[in-house]
Automatic annotation (TrEMBL):
One of its GO terms (biological process) is iron-sulfur cluster assembly. This is Complex 1 LYR protein domain-containing protein. It comes from the Eukaryota. Residues 9-65 form the Complex 1 LYR protein domain. It comes from Acorus calamus (Sweet flag). CDD domains: Complex1_LYR_LYRM4 (cd20264). InterPro entries: Complex1_LYR_dom (IPR008011), Complex1_LYR_LYRM4 (IPR045297).
């Protein structure tokens, strides 16, 4: 195995993962990536064996590369128009109104 990573390298990996997670435009994915990163580092905080620390660090680097690729793919296929909660609420109101008109029209 490679040498044990320094605390600075581990912190740099943590920051890089969080920074890459913030590049996702979708809120759900962005928050999932952040939560997953924080949970993984919290779980591995107590590791003391140099081999397991090195293995966890290598896994983190692999996850960083995957996350970077996925952020690029998600940015390519992201919707061009952002929807806000207000526009979603208006869409729901329109759908309910349309359903009500259709149902009331069938009764006549």
């Amino acid at each position: 195995m490679a040498s044990t990573p320094s605390p600075g390298e581990i912190l740099s990996l943590f920051r890089s993962l969080l920074k890459t997670a913030s590049k996702f435009s979708d809120y759900s994915i962005r928050e999932y990536m952040k939560r997953r990163t924080i949970d993984a580092f919290r779980d591995n905080k107590t590791l003391s064996d140099p081999n397991t620390v090195c293995s966890a660090f290598i896994d983190g680097k692999t996850q960083l590369e995957i996350e970077r690729r996925q952020s690029i793919v998600f940015s390519l296929y992201a919707p061009k128009r952002r929807t806000s909660w207000k526009s979603r609420a208006v869409d729901v109101k329109r759908a309910v109104l349309f359903m009500w008109v259709c149902v009331s029209g069938e009764k006549d």
